[in-house]
Structures are given as structure tokens and as C-alpha cells.
Amino acid sequence: MKIIGLPALVGTYDNYIWVLYQDNKAWVVDPGESQQVIAFLKLHNLVLQGILVTHHHFDHVDGIPALKKAYPDATVFGAQKTNNAHIQVRLAEGDVVKLTDDFRLQVLDTPGHTPDHISYYNDQALFCADTLFTAGCGRLLGGTVEAFSHSLIKLRNLPDHTPFYCAHEYTEDNLKFAIQVEPNNPELQQRLTNLNIHYPTLQTEALGLLKNEKRTNPFLRFDCEEIKAQLIQRGANDTPASLFQTLRNWKDQYDQQS
């Protein structure tokens, strides 16, 4: 299975639309736009088989109507809780979406960014949309801190070697915040030094491995001792939800100032 990321909503939300394809068949994750997807499918003589939705936000679903018009036989998958009339197959934690005989994606319930957020996972890929970003995570837009902290811990417990595919290109800004949180982390320092982002001029493959996020992403490290101590100084209690909420508030304040 080949996987490629197509830039979408460039300059505003800076999304990735992930296209999976094998032989002449293709699937797409979170199409916030349609024109670049259709162009890619036609260029490579691919037939769209399915659309995988992680949550209801417009920048993840607005391309569905045009894609369904162009490829009416494509099946739209999404969470049971997602309010979108185009979804044909409703999914919950533990369900499996079969793309091919040797490529199946397990559904993970990952609420927090929104209450309806799900992710798609196997040992070759994690499509985590707005739950986990490179060096960051999504904002709270309807979910709870308890749910979000639990979702991040769930993703952190997945195997280190897992390539992950998030839905936005916020890497540079996230790393600049992360180094403020953990300035003495040598791997984070190196990651910022080696920063080389090609978005949106080149089609993008996996944004990294989970092991790198576990070592450098503060939103997967909010309960490690160095970060925890800072968060408690900022008023957090020693619970995952409180630590996460304090870190998320810190990032929100940073975003407002930058």
C-alpha cells in the first residue's frame, strides 16, 4: 500500500489529505477539499473505493460531496457519533475497515479534540488527524481534557515503529513551543535544528514515527518528571487530565502571542 499526502486549504488550515492506493484502487482520509484528490486519482488511473472520516469538522469533510459525485460507488466511513449525512458505514472502537486482504485498519476511539474523533491504525500506519500532530496535538473543540489525555496516552502506547499521519502541517510552530517546555531535551534540540519542511510544494509521506514523538512531543510527555514539575508550578494537579489541561492552556497562550 502506498500512502501520499496532498496539501489542502494551504495558507489557512494547512491540511493534509492522505491518499492510500494499491494497483488501480484508492482510499482517502479526511478530504477537506476535492479537486487535488480527483486530479491525483485521474493522473494515476485510480478508482476511489472509500473515504475514511475521523471527525466532523469542515476541513476534513467538505470534499466528500464532489468525490461522491465523481466516484458514486465509493463508501464513506465515519464514527457513530459524527453528524455527517454522507457517512454510510458507522464505526466504533475495535471495528476494522478492510481496504485489501493484507491491509486492514482498526478503529480507535480518540475523542478530545472533538467528542466524535476516531483514528485508524495498523502496524504500518496511524491516521490520527487532529488528536496528535508532529510535536503537538489538536485544540479542545468540544471534547474534554479527561478524554483527550486518555486518547494521547492510548496513542503513546502504540508500537514505537508506527508511522503516523496527522491532518495538519504545524510542525515548526509546535517545535518552537516544545523547546520552551523542555529546553534540555537533546533530541528535541536536534529535531528543531534539522527541521526541513517541504509542505506544500512536495507530496508528503509519513510525518514520522511514534518513537520520535514519544521522545520529543510534550503532549505525549506531559507526565514525565521534568515537564510535570513545570506544569504543577503552573497550577496543575498530578493527574493526567490536569497536567494535559495545563500544558494545552500554555500552548493556547503561546499561540495567541506568536
SSE layout and pairing:
Blueprint: E1 2-8, E2 15-22, E3 25-29, H1 35-43, E4 47-52, H2 58-61, H3 64-70, E5 75-79, E6 89-91, E7 96-100, E8 103-109, E9 118-122, E10 125-129, E11 132-133, E12 136-137, H4 145-156, E13 164-166, H5 171-181, H6 186-193, H7 210-216, H8 225-233, H9 240-257
Parallel strand pairs: 3-4, 4-5, 5-6, 10-13
Antiparallel strand pairs: 1-2, 2-3, 7-8, 8-9, 9-10, 11-12
Helix pairs in contact: 4-9, 5-6
Written overview of the protein:
There is one protein chain. This protein is an alpha/beta fold and 258 residues long. It has a single domain (2-257), classed as Metallo-beta-lactamase, Chain A, CATH 3.60.15. It is 33% helix and 24% strand. It contains nine helices and 13 strands. The chain has helices spanning 35-43, 58-61, 64-70, 145-156, 171-181, 186-193, 210-216, 225-233, 240-257, and strands spanning 2-8, 15-22, 25-29, 47-52, 75-79, 89-91, 96-100, 103-109, 118-122, 125-129, 132-133, 136-137, 164-166. The strands form three sheets. A six-stranded mixed β-sheet has the order 1-2-3-4-5-6, with helices on one face. Strands 7-8-9-10-13 form a five-stranded mixed β-sheet, with no helix packed on it. Strands 11-12 form a two-stranded antiparallel sheet. The radius of gyration is 18 Å and the shape is globular.
